[in-house]
Amino acid sequence: MVTGRPPLDPVRQIERAHRILDAVSELVLRWGYDKTTIDDIAKRAGVAKGTIYLHWKTRDDIFAALLRRERVLMLAEVREQEPATPGELFGGYARALLRRPLLQAVLSGDSEVLGKLARQKRRARGTPPVGSVFASYVTELVKHGAMREDPGDHLVVLSAILNGLLILPDGLPEELKPSDDRLAELVADTVERTLGTGRTLPPAAADAVARATLDFLDAAEDVARDRLAVSLCSKEASS
Fold first, then answer.
1. Is residue 89 a contact partner of residue 192, using CB atoms and an 8 Å limit?
2. Is the Cβ–Cβ distance between 115 and 34 less than 8 Å?
3. What is the DSSP letter of 85?
4. Is there a contact between 75 and 43 (Cβ–Cβ < 8 Å)?
5. Of 127, 135, 163, 231, which is most buried, counting CB atoms within 10 Å of its CB?
C-alpha cells in the first residue's frame, strides 16, 4: 500500500504555478533578477522552497515561464480590441507591450531588471510572432490588397519599425519623449505607410483582411499558450 501526500490535482497545480509567477514578477520588478532568490520567491508566494522545484529546475526556467505568460496576456489584450488592419494590429501590439514592465525591460535590454539575462533576452526584443503563422498572414494581406508584396522581408521591416519606435525614444530628453499611446499611433501609421498599399479596399476585401488579422492573432495566441503550458508543467504532473 502506497502512503504519503496525495498528488495535487492539475487545476490546483496550475493555480500554484501562477501564484509563484505572480511573486516572481513582483520581486524582479522591485529588486531585479540578479537579486531575486528562490528563497525570496518561496516566501513571497507562501510556499516551501522545494515546492518551486516541483515546477521548475532553475531560476532561469521560472523567468522563461513568466515571460511566456506575459506574452500570452499581451496577445489576449490585443485580441480583445479586435483589430481589423495591420496598422491596428501592430499599433495595438505596441500599446499592449508598453503596458507590461517586464516586456519593456526585455525590449530595452534593461540590465537593472534583467541582470545577467539582459544579453540573453536581446533577441526577443519587440519581435512579433514569427514562422509560418506570420508568413500566412502576409500572404493573405497581399492577396487582398492590404500589403505590398515588394520589397519583401516583411518581418524584418516590421521588426525594425517596432524596435526603432519603441526603443529609440529612451535616448530622448524627457520633455521630448512621446507618450505610450502616441508611440502606438506612430507604429500603426508607420506600418501602414511602409508596408501598406495606400488603397481603399472594397468592403469584401476589408472584411477578409479583418478576418485574417483575427485569425493570425488567434494562431499566435495558441502558440504562446502552448509554450506557456510547457513551462507550467510540474514534476508532480508528469510523475
1. no
2. yes
3. S
4. no
5. 231
Predicted confidence band of residue 232 (pLDDT cuts 50, 70, 90): confident
3-state secondary structure 86-134: HHHHHHHHHHHHHCCHHHHHHHHCCHHHHCCHHHHCHHHCCCCCCCHHH
198-221 pLDDT per residue, tens:
999 999 999 999 999 999 999 999
* CA pair distance 152, 223, nearest whole angstrom: 24
Global pTM reads 0.86
Give pLDDT tens digits for 72-92: 999 999 999 999 999 999 999
Distances (CA, A) of 138 to 50, 61, 147, 216: 46, 33, 7, 10
**Distance of alpha carbon 171 from alpha carbon 177, whole angstroms:** 9
DSSP per residue, 131-196? SHHHHHHHHHHHHTTSS--SS--HHHHHHHHHHHHHHGGGGS-GGGPPPHHHHHHHHHHHHHHHHS
Lookup: cell for 9: 490535482
Which amino acid, residue 133?
Answer: V
Alpha-carbon gap, residue 205 to 198, rounded angstroms: 14
Residue 161: the pLDDT is 94
